[in-house]
Structure prediction request, 510 residues.
Amino acid sequence: MIHAADGLQLPARMSADLCVVGAGPGGMAAATVAAEAGLRVVLLEAGDLVTPATSTQREEDMLPRLLWHAGARTTEDRRVRVVQGHGVGGSSLHNINLCKRVPSPILQRWRRDRGLEQLPPPAWDALYDETEQLLGVQTIPAERQNPLNQLLRAGTQALGWRGGPLRHNRAGCIGSGFCALGCAYDAKNNALKVFARRLVEAGGQVVTRCQAVRLRTEAGRVRAVSAVALDPTTRRPRGRLEVSAPIVCLAASATGTAALLQRSGVPDPGGETGQRLHLHPGAVVVGDFEQPVRAWEGIPQSYECTEWLDFERPDRRAWIATAFAHPASAAAMVPGHGEMHREWMTRYAHLAGFSVMLHDETRGVVEPDGELDLKITYRPNRDDREQLARGLRAATRLLFAAGARRVLIPSRPPRVVHRATEVGEVEAAALEDGRLELTAVHPMGSVPMGDDPQRAAVDSAGRHHHMDGLWVSDASLFPGSIGVPPQLSVYALGLHVGRSLVAREGGTGS
Ligand SMILES: Cc1cc2nc3c(=O)[nH]c(=O)nc-3n(C[C@H](O)[C@H](O)[C@H](O)COP(=O)(O)OP(=O)(O)OC[C@H]3O[C@@H](n4cnc5c(N)ncnc54)[C@H](O)[C@@H]3O)c2cc1C
Ligand code: SF4
Prediction:
């Protein structure tokens, strides 16, 4: 059953064998595995049930329904916009469907540095095979690349750089281009489509518009989750709800999980919780082309340039893909304001954005902010700013190689360059602290798993080292930045944590 918390008689009490917090890929996978193994599962989700039938393709309607703070969450100094989704499916509802495995050099490093006895590289390989099958992951063929992605391909090939097509989890996609607003055609093999029916058929309950506030613990064991029911319009608390459960699995994302653990005072002798947040921050350079690009049409993000990303080299940490947006989001993506911004927006149909995403070394901090919110502190260090500068320079060269007439650099204030030889300008802007418009869509690593309980809070099965019955199953678990889109690995972790939880605690419930 899937129902909304504000429809319950409040205050309300529920009980379960397992309470999962958060219905993103990590939470839905773990909850489904546990329910199918016979545990009574209650899953609490702060967002709504957003189905294909209710997806309207309107930004003003869908962005508030799909995103925390309607997409306007930022770091405390407003330097980085941190976009995260909510709803049954979490960010998989509105993400772009790219699927990539964590590269082998990173898995080997994690094994060396963090132990990960229960998740060595061969176990990842098996989980990836299974997850790719489950999500129907396939390469987007060249004939389905839209004009925007064809420009990135053309630029990459013209410069003789490394690049290639991307793999996505789609089935029956008609190329409407609305992925970022949720799919009205049910063509995304996301966490809602892949798991919700299975979870419900196994007896699992999903309670939407229900935000967990803190864990109730006693004598070193988790006992319950305290939550609030949210009003559907204002998203303010309407009343309280408590779920008693001997097992709790946190999957509230790399920001939400770390905030909940800290707000609940869960012990962490190593002090890592919330202190090692990676964001993969990125910036977009925008090219103006003679011919129309109509970037909003067709399958988004089907090609990548990997010339400046090398997992064996710390001096190559920039991944380049395409960036597209519908009008309101494009207006936010195109930097600047006033007459200059208006003039660029009149060229909307001719604009092509190339995004540079940083495989970041900077460690940010996430902590609770009152009962319901959280605070993110993140300032890219000098090395990371240098990498971003290189990436932006490369993306600018790619745009010119693909035929752009002029390129807009997202510095504060924005700069316009007219030829590839002016790219030194880009570097100067990027290197100064706080001078770039940054956006991040991949928070991770805030509760990094590790087998040493003096250092890590959670082990490589997802089990908390210092609180019995407590588990974590989301992007928090990565021991560092992964440098590739994370969803495939989060689904894989969800399956792994769900199975580990059942194996260890299966007999704890009723
Ligand atoms: C715009 C955008 C595009 C992206 N594109 C891609 C892509 O193409 N490929 C890719 O691999 N990755 C992509 N990602 C990232 C990917 O979607 C995430 O890494 C992935 O969804 C993380 O899964 P998760 O389970 O850790 O968290 P989430 O998906 O964030 O799910 C966490 C859930 O927990 C809920 N929650 C949080 N706090 C609470 C609380 N206190 N109580 C109850 N519920 C709570 C949230 O509402 C949310 O539904 C994209 C992300 C964004 C924002
Ligand atoms: S492009 Fe495909 S997956 Fe994206 S919204 Fe359209 S039909 Fe759905």
Remarks:
- The mean pLDDT is 95.
